[in-house]
TrEMBL record:
UniProt name for this protein: Trace amine associated receptor 5
Organism name: Pelusios castaneus
GO CC terms: plasma membrane
A Pfam family reported for this protein in Swiss-Prot or TrEMBL: 7tm_1
Gene3D superfamilies assigned to the protein according to its UniProt record, in alphabetical order: Rhodopsin 7-helix transmembrane proteins (1.20.1070.10)
């Protein structure tokens, strides 16, 4: 069979040195398709989160505690798209790491930092929405700018310390050699994917997921109960004014449900795979691993679409930004109107 008819052809080495990783060369069409898919993912991640940053930063009416959380989330996802995804795309397509061990460690640090930071933000946003819907009267006093800053500090601080300790602190590795898998060959960048890291990573991704699911179920129950109460009030009083509140609560529950669902679709396969690899001595093929990790990356592109782009006020804000109508803020937000939350 002619090699040009093969979907992929294996080349022995990434580098012409002993111990080099084997390299996989895809046909031109497949290689181009993968690069385009990765480029589209990066473009969606960068542009979507950049629009969130610009809109929330520019319009003072959007300077609320919840929106500051979204602003910080967008920053983490934007940095992931700018600093991590381009090199991950090259590694996925070329099946080799060409940027050296030091940069591999830095790339892994940033990758884990931004992904964990994004997940922590999603968890805190769920907590914020839980208070807003389940305890609306006390919500303005419970979730203030100060509380939002504390949540943001935890979301950045804990992942930073955790990742730094496991990547740059030599003391952690002492006495734990039986847990760690050495880098298998020259040209590989998989420092984090060892047994110890896999066992610790699983609860780090699983518990925020469990928190979000629990809060979503409670929010869904409370939102339905409030909707029924408002509907009964409308029928008894003949007033339709509270109807907007009912729609708002239902939209909040629906939005958070979509967020949790997409989070599960994006992160659960990768998280389960890392745990299975720990138990079965890293049996995941490199191609499958790349697919799973890019599914996880895709969550950062979805966050602006879930939390922000589905709202009319944000689409209007983006339109004003894109058309350079910076002096028309009053058309978007009438005087004495302040947006307290977006979902």
């Amino acid at each position: 069979m002619n090699s040009s008819n093969l979907w992929m052809v294996s080349i022995p080495l990434c580098y012409e040195v002993n111990g080099s990783c084997s390299r996989t060369i895809y046909s031109f069409g497949v290689q181009l398709a993968i690069y385009m898919a990765c480029a589209m993912g990066m473009l969606l991640t960068v542009l979507g989160n950049l629009m969130v940053l610009i809109a929330v930063s520019h319009f003072k009416a959007l300077h609320t505690p919840t929106n500051f959380l979204l602003l910080s989330l967008a920053l983490a996802d934007l940095l992931l798209g700018l600093t991590v995804l381009p090199f991950s795309a090259i590694r996925s397509v070329e099946s080799c790491w060409y940027f050296g061990d030091d940069f591999c460690r830095l790339h892994t640090f940033l990758d884990t930092l931004f992904c964990l930071t994004s997940i922590f933000h999603l968890c805190f946003i769920s907590i914020d929405r839980h208070y807003a819907i389940c305890d609306p009267l006390l919500y303005p006093t419970k979730f203030t700018i100060r509380v939002a800053c504390i949540y943001i500090g935890i979301s950045w601080g804990v992942p930073s310390v955790y990742t730094f300790v496991f990547l740059y602190t030599g003391e952690i590795e002492e006495g734990l050699d039986h847990f760690f898998q050495d880098v298998p060959c020259v040209g590989s960048c998989q420092l984090l994917f060892n047994k110890l890291w896999g066992w610790i990573n699983f609860p780090l991704f699983f518990f925020p997921c469990l928190i979000m699911i629990t809060l979503y179920v409670k929010i869904f129950i409370v939102a339905n109960r409030q909707a029924r109460q408002i509907s009964n009030l409308n029928r008894s009083s003949g007033s339709g004014l509270p109807l907007e509140a009912s729609k708002r609560e239902r939209k909040a529950a629906k939005t958070l449900g979509i967020a949790v669902g997409i989070y599960l679709v994006c992160w659960l396969p990768f998280t389960i795979d890392t745990l299975v690899d720990c138990l079965l001595n890293f049996i995941t093929p490199p191609v499958l691993f790349d697919v799973l990790i890019w599914f996880a990356y895709f969550n950062s592109a979805c966050n602006p679409l879930i939390y922000v782009f589905s709202y009319r006020w944000f689409r209007k804000a983006v339109k004003l930004v894109l058309t350079s109508l910076e002096n028309d803020t009053a058309r978007l937000f009438p005087p004495n109107v302040k947006i307290t939350y977006i979902i």
